[in-house]
Design brief:
It is built from 10 helices and 11 strands. It is an alpha/beta fold. The chain has a 6-stranded mixed β-sheet. A 5-stranded mixed β-sheet has the order 1-4-3-2-11, with helices on both faces. Helix 3 links the parallel strand 3 and strand 4.
Length: 289
C-alpha cells in the first residue's frame, strides 16, 4: 500500500466517486512514478495552474487535490509546449500525484452544493429554510444532484443578493431580473448549482437560479421564463469550500488513525498535513476604467 492509494481511499469516503456525473473525469488523475522524499503535505486547489504547481514544488507536497480535473478530454500528446501538460509533467517528475473529486464533491451530503445552501441565510443565520435535490436522492443518504431551497418566509431579492455576496466575500455579483420589481421582488425558492449551472438549472421551478456562471442565452432563457439569476463567477462558488474540505479530510484521516481498517494504511497517513493553496484564485477581476 502506498501513500497515494491510502489517500485515495480517504477521498473516496469524503466524496464517493460513483456520485460524480457520468461525463466527468474524477479520481486519481496523475500517479507519480516515484514517491517524493520527506513530503507529507496535501495541497487543495480548485485549478491546477502554473502558480499552484510552483507552490507545490516549493513546499513538501506529495499530493494535490485539484477540484477541477486537469485532464478532462483525451490527450493525443503530452508536451512541455502546453502549459497545463507541462504542469502535469513537472508534478510527475517531482513525485507529486493529483486527485480530482469534482462533481462527486458537488453532490455528496455536506459537499459544495450543501455549503452553498448556507450562504442564503446571511451572517446572522436567522433565516429558516428547507432543501431538496433537483433530481432524485442518492441511496443511503449520500446526497443528490443540485439543491432547491425553500424559505420559511419570503425575502426581497435585494437581501438575498446581499447575503450571497457577503457570505462568499465578493465585491461584485451579477444579477438578471425577471420582473419589473427587480431587487424588490419577493422570492421563496432558490435553485443552486456550483460552477456552471445553466444546463442543470434551466427548467427547474424556482424563483432564483444561483450559480457561478451561465451563458448569455441561458440567462435570457431563464429570465424570459420568469426566473431571476444570480451569478458569482464560476470558481467563486467553489473555492470557499476548500477549508471545509480540508477539515473533512482531516476528520476521516483521524478516524482511520483511531480505528484503522488497515494498520499499514493508517501508518502511511500519520503526520499528513492538509493545506489550502494560497495561489489558487479566480482568473477574472472586475475593473473600473
Amino acid at each position: 500500500m502506498s501513500l497515494v492509494k491510502s489517500f485515495c481511499r480517504i477521498m473516496g469516503r469524503v466524496a464517493p466517486l460513483h456520485l460524480a456525473e457520468k461525463w466527468d473525469n474524477v479520481g486519481l488523475i496523475l500517479e507519480a512514478p516515484h514517491v517524493r522524499p520527506d513530503a507529507k503535505r496535501v495541497l487543495l486547489t480548485v485549478d491546477l495552474t502554473p502558480a499552484v504547481v510552483e507552490e507545490a514544488l516549493s513546499t513538501p507536497t506529495s499530493l494535490i487535490v485539484s477540484y477541477h480535473p486537469p485532464i478532462f478530454k483525451p490527450l493525443t500528446s503530452i508536451t512541455l509546449a502546453n502549459p497545463l501538460q507541462a504542469s502535469l509533467l513537472r508534478c510527475a517528475a517531482a513525485g507529486i500525484s493529483i486527485y480530482t473529486p469534482h462533481t462527486a464533491l458537488d453532490s455528496v451530503t455536506d459537499g459544495i452544493n450543501d455549503w452553498l445552501c448556507t450562504k442564503i441565510a446571511g451572517p446572522l443565520r436567522d433565516i429558516s429554510w428547507t432543501a431538496r435535490y433537483i433530481g432524485q436522492a442518492f441511496p443511503d443518504g449520500l446526497g443528490g444532484v443540485g439543491r432547491v431551497i425553500t424559505l420559511k418566509q419570503p425575502m426581497e431579492l435585494k437581501m438575498l443578493q446581499f447575503n450571497i455576496r457577503t457570505e462568499l466575500e465578493l465585491k461584485n455579483i451579477q444579477v438578471a431580473y425577471a420582473k419589473p420589481e427587480k431587487e424588490k421582488t419577493l422570492v421563496s425558492t432558490i435553485a443552486i448549482c456550483a460552477g456552471s449551472g445553466g444546463s442543470m438549472l434551466l427548467g427547474v421551478d424556482a424563483d432564483v437560479y444561483f450559480t457561478g456562471e451561465m451563458s448569455h442565452h441561458e440567462v435570457l432563457a431563464a429570465i424570459q421564463s420568469g426566473h431571476n439569476v444570480i451569478l458569482c463567477g464560476h470558481t467563486n462558488t467553489e473555492r470557499g469550500f476548500l477549508p471545509w474540505l480540508a477539515k473533512d479530510i482531516e476528520e476521516f484521516i483521524q478516524e482511520e488513525l483511531e480505528q484503522p481498517t488497515d494498520p499499514e494504511e493508517a501508518e502511511l497517513l500519520k503526520g499528513l498535513e492538509i493545506v489550502v493553496s494560497q495561489t489558487d484564485e479566480h482568473p477574472l477581476v472586475t475593473v473600473d476604467v
